[in-house]
Recover the amino acids of this structure.
């Protein structure tokens, strides 16, 4: 951390500040210049509150040099994390497709889709039971019944399931779910993140629509700081100025996250664009950029889906996509397992 | 709502679609053109799912014409909502300043600040007990003890209190709080919004950092749809590309929200910039643009504040600001009460 | 400037880098820490290319501490610049309204509007002769004829004129124009900026739709570096995610620009929202935030305007706005002259 | 185009509006509803100014249905455009790498790099002679001398050259250049676009940092409307909130542009991130997403480059990248020619 002092800060103020910092077990290096004086802090600065420092009368600005996340940081954990789930390994070197409907709508719908995506090669079943919808008047999901249907589909197909949790008050209902998903709008729901840190469930954490990579990793850090290190990062599109698509896949997030963190990174091409014809080119790009998996929406009858039909593939389209994906995974030298 | 049909959509598909829409008590007007055919829907389209329509094989695109929110919509409630809280009226024609520390830190700190802001003319006391911090390693607030201290400060000063709730699982702890605040990062925490809709507490709803005006009003709608119409909207800065400030006050949000909705609109100039010297020019602009109040962070010792010190005013600065604010409120012909 | 070195950078590489920097008359202070080593550079770093430094094998990152602009920087020119134009003073302490049609359409249209805005209190006449339109099929302006009409209107009313120049190849046609405007889309048309730096005309420089404050001031610096210091900065709205308005007035830009630079700052509320009813609240906010003037579109018949009719006021609306503006200017203690 | 009328618009105003529209050879379909009345316009609406319509007293809003670009529109030109340049074919089915230094610095530098990139498989030589730099104090390029060096390198290697033009006043100096590049900051320099439309040179048009796909295609339309249809589109990264990279490759732009337009689409991974290690993953993603080529910065000595060294590859890194690219091009079934 580097502190830039104000040009005319009185020596007394500077001394007070330096003593305060040294009191936190930091070594302070001072570079006195013509236009500005710098203090370089050496030691563990993770507990230093930058805002507090900026409020000091002697301080012009503060620049952070090392990342504020530790457990999620590749610097301190150089090896890729591989998370074992339901007999599968999720992380670098492997590739998984999480497929299923946006919302669980009925036993029949779900079992049709589950069997179909399994046959096409998906290794996890996704499906929404509690749905975060922008409008209170839209379909909100089958809730607890939806989870029951997912568990039933899991029993039939053997596919481990992933479904979204929206509040720490819901944890009880998710006891048998394999992977708990945190949605983009809850990426900074810190009560939920803390509660998930107390569980031993794998967490699929989606990036918020306008959040930076650092904020995303800090949310992973929240979960990990509680003791649960099984976090899968999911890039699902950011908000940009382009009006013709709902969100915009941030392809750079994949290499950036892989470089800064050791956690698995998957991509949701269905939400990333919001249009079914774009799922394929975005899936191809995500694989080439190094993603460890894809989360794809599949619906047996997209035009009668109760939500997000426009971005869902039907089973035939998904099967064709999976054939292409398999060729590409082989090309990249990754393993499906 | 207008549906634009695909150029070569077969007549049979169109007929099926039209029958489906008429089955929802909508009247469908068709304009057949050279390049495209339009269906204009007349009736209550609030339950129509646009995504579902877009997935129809015959449909090229769908454009919404009326707003998807009803209870928050000025079109259906032309008169301004005035919310009575603790003997005060909040809404158009009145002006209130909500002041206090970012975080409640101690009994002494809070009572000093509370008495000071009251004397300067603030009508509500704000203070954080549960703090949503980006880092799990930052100070997270005094939690339940913080609420107890706020209630004590209220008893002493008579100022009604506003403090942030982060999850539906916390409602019990907020039973005696006057106004429950929903933070920017929780603007689309729909479980929380639904739970707040079941209470009869006034809710101060902060806009998310990258949310549109429509999404903001849809979140207000979530609370109102549950039966609680006492919602105060708070603009607190959006994310832009400017790196020299933390957020960026969206001044246009004030006239837009006032035109589209009947709800009170206040502004938080402290978070909107994140730097104390900008609180004053932003406060002046907010008053001139028509805000119904301001929420200002005040700390007795900003440089030792446990959070957000850089954006807090000290009591003397706040007092000077209040003198300027009073002149401006009088100039605008508004009332403090 | 602070250079953060890579953790394991070999001492030899570091020495080479330090010698290279010292060769540029910089003093280099080194802070060796546990996790990272910092080099603090003291001296004139304006000629240092940050990108070049970042490419050095030993360098992890580089942080700039002082602003890269000099002539536009208040640090080196603490007093406000007041620019004399046609008998008026533009800058801090004064307030001017630049009014007129988006496009010059005919002699009659322009003289009607010019006389009307003069009577209402505008001190400068604006009008587009060369129009930068997104579509090649839209009206592109009367070009040279438009300038002739502006000059005629100036002769009649005495109002100095401001009109937009789009390329360095057009300079000849603007010889008699009082203020040359650079449009938002040309803010980084560096050939144009350089050419304008060679003239002695006042330049009204509009901020680009997604440019930072630093980039904006660097474009002013381009003009000033050529010898022309008469630059008026104009905030005209930035691009945000809000779809209901065309652009979004960045109110924070006013206090930021006033603090960082000594140049006059005006606001264009007409383009900032793109809707006529928002011109008034945005004008009020801009005055309160400290703007030195406003640029307002006025058209005698907005619904038949050849461009931007939706954001133009008619003469009666403008007259009413001017009455309000005058009250507010007096309240702020500013002078119209 | 659909016009939504105001709820209580008087019938007389509506009739006047309808007559005005019919006077432009449009057929007007009216759907009268309970809450709103719609007018659907059938015919050629490209000359209709939406802003003008919005200013009409009877009009609430206007929604465009078809794209405002024609010559660049795939709807009217279903077959991919293949542009022949210097014996090569640029467009769908082919793949080209444009490589070379950010800036031309000397005869020796350029010839070294040119020969090296040719040997590695690049088919076009890029290099900046006139450089658009944010700071007036940064290196501005060798200007005319730079073009002379590029032409010399072309004679030696046979590689056709592409270099950036910054103003319509410079056209003379570019007479022998094979492809004229328009930089991101000049994407809406309409005088330049018009002038380029009068030439018969292939134009490489870079997308602006915050421009939409429609604005990008409208800029291509400007060139094409002048008679020059040889436009190559180049995605080079957009501005997002991520501070750790300079720009952010918009991967969705590739499938979107290919669907909406028939023009070739290439990607500049060097500028898209601004860091050399990201060139490779972004190149891989761009190929998988369907790009027709890449533009890559190569410098013999990146850390002494006069600009953008941080994002340049050295010749060995470029050679390794080209080997990977060739495998991928073959995998996608494309041809280098």
């Amino acid at each position: 951390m580097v502190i830039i002092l104000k040009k005319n800060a009185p020596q007394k103020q500077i001394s007070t500040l330096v003593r305060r910092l040294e009191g936190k077990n930091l070594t302070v290096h001072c570079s006195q210049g013509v236009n500005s004086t710098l203090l370089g802090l050496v030691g563990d600065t993770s507990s230093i509150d930058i805002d507090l420092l900026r409020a000091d009368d002697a301080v012009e600005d503060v620049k952070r040099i090392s990342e504020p996340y530790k457990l999620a940081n590749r610097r301190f954990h150089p090896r890729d994390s591989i998370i074992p789930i339901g007999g599968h390994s999720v992380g670098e070197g492997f590739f998984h497709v999480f497929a299923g409907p946006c919302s669980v709508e009925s036993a029949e719908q779900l079992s049709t889709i589950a069997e179909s995506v399994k046959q096409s090669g998906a290794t996890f079943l996704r499906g929404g039971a509690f749905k975060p919808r922008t409008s209170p008047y839209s379909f909100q999901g089958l809730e607890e019944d939806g989870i029951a249907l997912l568990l039933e589909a899991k029993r039939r197909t053997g596919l481990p399931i992933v479904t979204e949790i929206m509040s720490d008050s819901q944890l009880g209902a998710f006891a048998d779910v394999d992977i708990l998903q945190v949605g983009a709008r809850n990426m900074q729901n810190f009560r939920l993140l803390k509660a998930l840190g107390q569980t031993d469930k794998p967490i699929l954490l989606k990036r918020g629509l306008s959040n930076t990579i650092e904020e995303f990793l800090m949310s992973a850090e929240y979960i990990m700081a509680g003791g649960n290190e099984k976090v899968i990062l999911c890039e699902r599109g950011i908000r940009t100025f382009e009006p013709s698509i709902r969100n915009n896949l941030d392809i750079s997030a994949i290499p950036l996250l892989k470089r800064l963190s050791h956690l698995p990174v998957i991509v949701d091409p269905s939400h990333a664009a919001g249009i079914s014809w774009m799922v394929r080119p975005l899936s191809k790009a995500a694989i080439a950029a190094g993603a460890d998996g894809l989360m794809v929406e599949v619906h047996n009858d997209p035009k009668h889906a109760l939500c997000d039909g426009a971005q869902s593939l039907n089973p035939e389209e998904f099967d064709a996509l999976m054939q292409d994906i398999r060729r590409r995974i082989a090309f990249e030298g990754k393993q499906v397992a």
About this structure: The first strand of chain B starts at residue 2 and ends at 5. Chain B has a mean pLDDT of 93. The interface with chain D takes residues 2, 4, 27, 29, 31-36, 38, 40-43, 61, 63, 65-66, 239, 241, 243 of chain B (CB under 8 Å). Residues 2-63 of chain B form a domain with the Alpha-Beta Plaits fold (CATH 3.30.70.1140).
